Amino acid sequence: MTGFSLLILAALQIWDIILTTRILRAGGREMNGIMARLMAVAGNGWPAVKYAVGMGAAIWAASAGHVWLIWAIIAVMAWVIDHNLGE
Fold first, then answer.
1. Residue 1 to residues 12, 13, 38, Cα–Cα distance (Å)
2. Which of 52, 50, 60, 41 is nearest to 17 (CA)?
3. Residue 87 half-sphere exposure, CB side, CA atoms within 13 Å?
4. What is the pLDDT of residue 87?
5. What are phi and psi of 31, to 5 degrees?
6. Is pLDDT of 1 > 80?
7. DSSP state string for 34-85
8. Inter-axis angle of helices 33-42 and 46-63, nearest 10
């Protein structure tokens, strides 16, 4: 079950990066203040940093036996993607 949750999260992370990039190219802006700051600091490398941080947190949660936390992150990511699809 852990591998499945990590796979789902990885797919959601990639989908979020794709949608966010499209929104930004169309003149939108990042609404999450933490992500906006990360984007400013990381520049064009923000997708890799976002992916590494998100997956790193999930892998840490899995190694600590907190698979439920991965599913919580998945729920938040699903909400973000749903919001981005409406943009």
1. 17, 18, 31
2. 50
3. 21
4. 81
5. -90, -25
6. no
7. HHHHHHHHHGGGHHHHHHHHHHHHHHHHHHTT-HHHHHHHHHHHHHHHHHHH
8. 120
Alpha-carbon distance 70 to 68, whole Å?
Answer: 5
Query: What is the rounded average pLDDT of the residues 73-82?
Result: 95
Q: Amino acid identity, residue 82? A: D
Task: Kindly report the pTM of this predicted structure.
Answer: 0.90
Query: How far apart are the C-alpha atoms of 2 and 68, rounded to whole Å?
Result: 9
Percent of the chain exceeding pLDDT 70 equals 100
| Torsions phi, psi for 55 (to 5 deg) | -75, -35
For residue range 59-75, list pLDDT tens digits in order: 999 999 999 999 999 99
Burial of 57 (0-12, 13-18, 19+ CB in 10 A): middle
- List the structure tokens of 7: 């796979």
